Amino acid sequence: MAMGARTPQSRLRLFAALLVLCVTVGFAAEARGDVRRFALIVGNNRGDADEPLLRYAEEDARRMDELMQRYGNMERRDMELVLGGDSDRVRRKLIDLNDRIRRAASDPKVHTFLFVFYSGHADPRALHLDGTHFDLDELKQLVSGSPANMRVLIVDACYSGALTGVKGARPAPPFPLEIENRLEAEGVAFLSSSAAGELSQESEHLRGSFFSHYLMVGMRGVADVSGDGKVSLLEAFDYARQRTLWATSRTLVGTQHPTFDYDIQGHADVILTDLSLDTARRATLVFRDPGEYLVFAGEHGPLVAEVVTPSPWRRLVLAAGHYVVRLRTPAELRERHVLVEPGAMVTIAPEGMGPIAYLRLAPKGAYSRGRRHGPQASLHYRGETLQDFGGMMLGGVSYAVLLGRLWFRPRLLFGGSDFRVFGSRVRQFELQGDLLLSHGFDLRYLVLLVGAGTGGVMLRQEVSGVEEPANVTTGGFVFSGHLELMAPIASGVYVSVGGEALGVLLPTRGGGGGGGADWRMTPSYRIGIGLGYTL
After folding, report:
1. What is the Cα 24 distance to its own chain's centre?
2. Residue whose C-alpha is closest to residue 188's, from 220, 147, 217, 216
3. Phi (first) and psi of residue 177, to 5 degrees
4. For 364-409, what is each residue's pLDDT tens digit?
5. Phi-psi bin for 384: left (phi > 0), alpha (psi -120 to 50), beta?
6. Cβ-based neighbours of 274, under 8 Å, separated by 6 or more
7. Which positions ≥6 away from 24 have C-beta within 8 Å?
8. Are 317 and 221 within 8 A, CB to CB?
9. SS3 category, 162
10. pTM greater than 0.70
11. pLDDT at position 265, please?
C-alpha cells in the first residue's frame, strides 16, 4: 500500500504540482468565504459470490465517517454513510450528493468540497458491491464531474491503482511539503490503496485494512508535519503510504503500494482534518520523542492506533477515556496507563513509562491475538529416585503453546550417568515424557509459571565389572509440581530457571512393572535452566 511506482515523468508532475499547491481544502476559504463540505463514505464486506467475505471494510467506513464528522468540519446532513448494499444504492447516493452540492454552489460565496471514500472489493475495472459492479470509469466521471470546487476520491480495494493509472510500484522519497500560501485549491485528487495488479490487505492486528488504518491515524494528527494543527491530504497520504509500505513488506502477500493522481489549480493545501475541532469530547496524546507506539483502549481493549513517528511532538486526537500506551524498542517495551479527560492534552515520554518484559504480551494476548507457541531447550539435574538409581543430568526439549495465561508444554527428557561402586561400573539411562500445564503471572520484569505435570518414565541400569553382570529396566509414572521464572533477553527469546517436586511411581521388584510387583512412590526433585523462543 504505498504511493510508490513513479516514473520520472510522474515524479516530475508531482513535484511541479507541489510547487504550485500542496493539496488540501481549507476549512475557511479566505478568498471565497464559507466552505461547505460533503462526504460519501462506503464500506462493503461483500463482493462477488466467489470472493472471500471481508472482515473490516465496513468498520473502516464507520471509523472514517466518525473521523470526518468530528474533525472534518462536516455536518451530519451533508454526509452519507453506506454500509453494504449494491452498486445502484451507491450510485444514487453520489448523484443525489452532487445535486445538493450544485444547489449549495449556486451561492458564489460558498466554496464546496466533495470527499468520497470506499473500502471493499474491486478489480481493475469496477468496484464489487454485494454481487453487483460499479464501473471505475463511471465513478471517476461522477466525482470529476461533480460541481464541487474540490473533489477527493479514495479507494481502498484490490487493484485500485487502475484508478490512478499507476501500473507498477517502487518506493518513492517523502513528499516535500513547503506551504507558504493557504489560498483555495480547485480540482480533483484520486488516492488508491494499491497499484494496479496488487492486492490490498486487511490486518487482524489493526482490525482494519493497512492503508485505511494508517490514513486515519495520520488524519488524527500524526501526519501533521507542519505542526499547524491541520492535516492536509498530502500529509495524510504520505504517512499512510510509508506505513503501508513498511507493514505489508512483512506479509506473505507482499508489499502494497498506494498511489496518487491529481488535477489541481491554485495555491492551497487541501485540509482534511482540523485537530482544534470537537473540543467537548476531544483528548490529545502528544508523543514527545520519535518512536513506534501502540495505543490500546483500556487494559484489555482493542488496538486504537499504531503510531510510528520519525520526529518529535506528534499528536494523536481521540475520544476522552482510558488508554494503554506502549513504546516498542529493540530491547524492551515501555508502558503507561493514561486517563485523558475531555479537552486535556497528555504528553507521552519514555521516562514516564514503566518497562515491561516482552514476554508479558503473550499471556495477556493483547498485543498478539490468538495463540503463541515456540520451542524450548533445557538442562536439568534430578535427585535420586530409588535405591541404586542415583541422581543424574538430563537434557530436555519441549514445545510451549500459550493460550491466554495458560502454558501447555509437552516435554521429552533424556540423560544418563556412569560411575563406579566397589570396582564395578554402573551405567544408568533415563527417558521421560510428560505434559506440563502452567499458569503465568506477570511480575514487572519476569513471568512466574506455576503448574503441575504428569507422564511416564523408563529407567535402565547396567552393572559390569562383577562376576555376574546385571541389567535392570523398569518403567513407571512421574507426577510433578513446578515453579519457573522466565526473563526475556531479546524479542521472543527468554531464559528460565526453575525447580520441580517429583513423585516417581516405580515397581520395586518383578522388573518392568510385571505381575506381582510392589509399587512405591518415591519423592525426588529436579532443578533446571532453559532457553526458549515464542513465535
Report:
1. 29
2. 147
3. -110, 95
4. 333 333 457 889 999 999 888 755 566 789 999 999 988 767 889 9
5. beta
6. 27, 71, 72, 73, 229, 230
7. 185, 230, 231, 232, 233, 234, 235, 268, 269, 270, 271, 272
8. yes
9. helix
10. no
11. 65
